[in-house]
Amino acid sequence: MHMSSSLGRLAFFLAAFAVALPACKPKAIRGGEGTENPDLDDAAMSTGLDRTDLNDLMKKNMTALMTSPLWGQFRSAGKQPVVAIWPIKNDTTEHLDDQMLTLLSDMETELINSGIVAVVTRERQSEMIAEANIQQTPDFNPALAAQIGRQVGAQYFVTGKLQAVDERINKERRVQYTLFMQVVEVETSIVKFQTKSERSKAIVR
Q: Which pLDDT does position 85 carry in this prediction?
């Protein structure tokens, strides 16, 4: 009788545990503006660069450009200057191919929406480069830029590079990222504008 009662209680607990299992499954949640988790994207997952970091770095550089004397010259010009975007060189050890493409798209969007400059789309730029049998790389080469500039009709190139300095003290780690940005005049190869923005990330205990 005692054995039967114990087996009955065991069966009850096992059944209750089985019912509770689905509730313990991980679930997907939606985050960002307009959701029940608006701050989901704000937390850093690691010391690596994420979408929020790159967007903030880009925004700071674009703000500096759009408040610069060069931008004032663009604004007062009788005709919109034609600008093209050269790939941003990734000098870090991180694999950021997708993130860098998003960064370039965001820069392109900012420039287009300003209404101050005419922007050669990166798709058109790629087509012209392919037609001319030119290989474009992240390293900015003035002579190559002049050749590509003539192909796409660009007067200026916006380019830059991403760098990182990694510091380790005891068991803590801090990485300082710097995004440099330049505007180079195609005809003269003169740097007409340069700025940088910085972001630090750390693992602390």
A: 92
Do residue 68 and residue 164 come from a single domain?
yes
DSSP string of 126-147, one letter each residue: HHHHHHTT----SS--HHHHHH
Task: Find out whether 193 and 184 touch, Cβ atoms under 8 Å.
Answer: no
If DSSP codes are grouped into helix, strand and coil, which group holds residue 95?
coil
Residue 38 and residue 65 in one domain: no
Give the Cα separation of 155 and 84 in Å (integer): 8
- Please tell me whether residues 100 and 125 are part of one structural domain: yes
pLDDT of residue 97: 85
| 39 & 136 share domain | no
pTM over 0.85, yes/no: no
The three-state secondary structure class of 120 is coil
> What integer pLDDT is reported at residue 31 of this predicted model?
47
Give the length of the chain: 205
| Domain assignment of residue 30, given as a range | 1-43
Q: Residues 95, 169: contact at Cβ < 8 Å?
A: no
Identify whether residues 35 and 119 lie together within a single domain: no
Which stretches of the chain score pLDDT less than 70? 1-48, 132-134, 203-205
**Per residue in 10-29, pLDDT tens?**
555 555 555 555 555 666 65
Q: Are residue 198 and residue 155 in the same domain, yes or no? A: yes
Residues 90 and 182 in one domain: yes
Residue type, position 172, single letter: E
